[in-house]
Design goal:
49% of the residues lie in helices and 0% in strands. By secondary structure, it is mainly alpha-helical.
């Protein structure tokens, strides 16, 4: 997550949030390296979500049968996974 979700660590213990800079305290090199690792992991996940949204199954309202949603979503996820690996 980015720094906009700063209070989520109260609700989800396993969530990782980058370290914010204060007016009084600058970030150390270890903090900058940690923020870089967090952002590099986050951008990969956001790219996959964007790839799935291109198929419009989660970007728009799903108007087809609910029973087939999981089947279609799994097929789209498989296509996206295949596309990422090749």
């Amino acid at each position: 997550m980015d720094t906009g979700y700063f209070g989520i660590t109260c609700f989800h213990v396993n969530s990782v949030v980058p370290i914010k800079r204060n007016k009084k305290r600058l970030l150390s090199t270890e903090d900058k390296a940690f923020n870089h690792r967090v952002s590099s992991e986050r951008v990969l996940k956001e790219h996959v979500i964007g790839l799935i949204k291109r198929f419009k199954i989660v970007a728009d309202r799903y108007c087809n049968r609910r029973k087939r949603f999981s089947l279609r979503f799994n097929l789209i996820a498989g296509i996206c996974d295949y596309e990422q690996r090749t």
